[in-house]
Design goal:
The complex is a heterodimer. Chain A is mainly β. Helix content of chain A is about 15%, strand content about 35%. Chain A folds into three domains: about 1-40, no CATH class; about 45-90, no CATH class; about 95-165, Nucleic acid-binding proteins (OB fold (Dihydrolipoamide Acetyltransferase, E2P)). Chain A has two helices and ten strands. Chain A is elongated, with a radius of gyration of 23 Å. The two termini of chain A are about 45 Å apart. Chain B has a domain at about 10-120 and about 215-225: Peroxisomal Thiolase, Chain A, domain 1. In chain B, strand 10 (about 385-390) and strand 11 (about 395-400) form a beta hairpin. The chains are: A mainly beta, B alpha/beta. At the A-B interface, strand 6, strand 7 and strand 8 of A face helix 4, helix 5, helix 6 and strand 5 of B. Strand 6 of chain A pairs antiparallel with strand 5 of chain B.
């Protein structure tokens, strides 16, 4: 149960209603007793190769067999030529950093990670990728620095994802 | 071939006090703006022929904001809908209502923008706003936040044009300066460059005082056709052009990161050019057409990019505009002299129509009395501009208001 849920429970026990007083404004606030846990699920049946690739240490983009348009994130439908026939091409991993930020105020579901750097790099294959940039010292980051994209295990959860590191 | 449209005028505006509004529910909050707009137009709710409600939602309990606002504000049984375009939600609502009136579907329509963010605790709001990008490819594994998205643009700008963090701080100082005068602003407190520079990093290079707050609030606009407007008011403010465009959901697909001379929002440029074409404004000389502008400053870098995306100055010259204080009242073009999102507050779905509220009061020359004579722009061209961005340029709306009747 969330902190707010605990407060609601306490208020009901003490006063018979889930009404608390806001610390700052002193206004009465009614706390809903209906708490909704929220976790989404996605279909990936059109791009299974991307996830198989991650397990083999590869990061794939797609390229339309008819018009040559390149896609990352990979997609299997080409709105340019209306075809759905793609070549799956593993990225070399060679890229050049275009921009980055360091996230200090994190989403609550990211609170257990250390402050992290997110960058966007232009890849040799002509597409751009957004991912964490793994550097020990942010001062080492330079505009247009060469970076390498590779698969990595994200701890503590242990799932496979991908990240940049300086070359 | 475009069908013949009718002229559309703003005949009433309203806005609630912005801030943490634990004192009211969403429908009560909506009424504060709707009631003021109806009184402003000297009309009753029964006169409205359609209600468009802008509400981004997610953090608030009511799932059907258009229905609950219709019931509380007294527009039943007229048609209603809820419109969503992230932080540009109520500009999209105005665009929808504009088209209903311009097309002849109705003669008069009410727009309410309303957001009740504090129905969820702040960390939940921050989490949900961070998801305002591509959820799977940028949030699920990489934990992007809303300041983080704009920080990617800020870094890109710094690397290309030599922007300093102090330049961004100056924008926050200006907007707080004017929020002090705005009776409905969330932060009515002046700050200095040091306040900003000493605040902690949220997403490098953006600091706490580069960011707008989380806000509850509402705003309302009544739009009427020319024939109906004439009967209601002697001072109609016309909508002379709306432009809207959409940017890539993935920030990684923004080609401007590759272009050396360019660090703005491509969608904002497209939206501005559409609105300028409809109004007859020269993009390369845009500042001289407008007496005042409200631009989307959810973060200080957003206001800086807006100067260039709107053609107020050339690429890379935004910092110069800031250093010369050209966007204060009396400068080349006064920008966000109602406090902006930064200090007036940013109730997501109420922000766009709040810009229309401020600009309508400016063009009617009522803003000085409402806020302070120091914040009343000199109205000589009779034109004002609202630039409202959803997400990080995912949605862009530019709305131009004019005292002169347009010829649509």
């Amino acid at each position: 149960m969330s902190e707010l849920g605990e407060t609601a429970k306490k208020c009901i026990t003490e006063k018979g209603l889930p009404i608390m007083e806001d610390e700052k404004s002193k206004l009465p606030i009614y706390i809903s007793v209906r708490e909704l846990p929220l976790r989404f699920q996605f279909g990936i049946a059109k791009i299974p190769k991307f996830f198989e690739g991650l397990k083999e240490g590869k990061i794939y983009m797609t390229k339309c067999k008819k018009c040559g348009e390149r896609y990352f994130p990979p997609q299997t439908d080409c709105p340019k030529c209306l075809e759905s026939d793609m070549d799956w091409i593993p990225l070399s991993g060679e890229g050049e950093l275009l921009t980055c930020t360091m996230i200090f105020v994190k989403p609550s579901t990211y609170a257990h990670y250390k402050d992290y750097i997110v960058g966007i790099a232009q890849m040799k294959e002509g597409i751009k990728v957004l991912a964490w940039l793994n550097v020990d010292d942010p001062k080492k980051i330079k505009p247009k620095m060469k970076v390498q994209l590779k698969t990595v295990k994200r701890e503590p959860e242990g799932f496979i994802t991908y990240e940049f590191s300086p070359i | 071939m475009v069908a013949k449209l009718r002229n559309v005028a703003i005949v009433g505006v309203g806005q609630s006090k912005f801030g943490n509004r634990y004192d009211v529910r969403i429908d009560e909050l909506a009424w504060e703006a709707a009631g003021e707009a109806l009184k402003d137009a000297n009309l009753s709710a029964k006169d409205m022929e359609f209600l468009v409600v802008g509400c981004a939602g997610g953090w608030s309990a009511e799932a059907l904001p258009a229905a609950i606002c219709s019931e509380y504000c007294g527009t039943l049984p007229k048609g209603s809908m809820r419109v969503e375009a992230a932080c540009a939600t109520s500009s999209a609502a105005v665009a929808a209502a504009y088209n209903f009136v311009a097309s002849g579907y109705v003669d008069i329509a009410l727009v309410i923008g309303v957001e009740k963010m504090y129905e969820s605790p702040s960390p939940v709001q921050i989490e949900l706003i961070g998801r305002a990008g591509n959820f799977f490819w940028e949030f699920e594994n990489f934990g992007m936040t809303f300041p983080g998205y704009y920080a990617l643009h800020a870094t890109s700008y710094m690397w290309k044009h030599g922007l300093k963090e102090e330049d961004l701080a100056e924008i926050a100082v200006k907007n707080h300066h004017y929020a002090v005068m705005n009776p409905k602003a969330q932060f009515r407190k002046a700050i200095t460059v040091e306040t900003v520079m000493q605040s902690r990093y949220v997403a490098w290079p953006l600091k706490l005082f580069d960011c707008c707050p989380l806000t509850d609030g509402s705003s309302a606009v009544i739009l009427a056709s020319e024939n109906v407007a004439k009967k209601i008011t002697d001072t109609p403010v016309w909508i002379s052009g709306i432009g809207c465009a959409t940017g890539t959901i993935n920030l990684s697909k923004r080609d401007m990161f590759l272009k050396l001379e360019y660090s703005g929002l491509e969608s904002a440029v497209e939206a501005a050019k559409q609105a300028y074409k409809r109004t007859g404004v020269d993009y390369d000389n845009a500042a001289k057409y407008f007496d005042v502008a409200c631009v989307h400053d959810c973060f200080t870098i957003a206001e800086l990019m807006a100067y260039e995306d709107l053609g107020f100055c050339k690429r890379g010259e935004g910092p110069k505009l800031v250093r010369e204080k050209q966007t204060y009242n009396g400068g080349l073009i006064p920008v966000n002299i109602d406090g902006g999102l930064k200090a007036k507050g940013h109730p997501i779905g109420a922000t766009g129509s709040s810009m229309i509220y401020s600009l309508t009061k400016q063009l009617r020359q009522e803003y000085g009395k409402y806020a302070s004579p120091e914040a009343q722009a000199n109205i000589k061209n009779g034109k004002a501009l609202a630039h409202n961005i959803g997400g990080t340029g995912h949605y862009a709306y530019v709305t131009i208001l004019s005292l002169e009747k347009p010829n649509v």
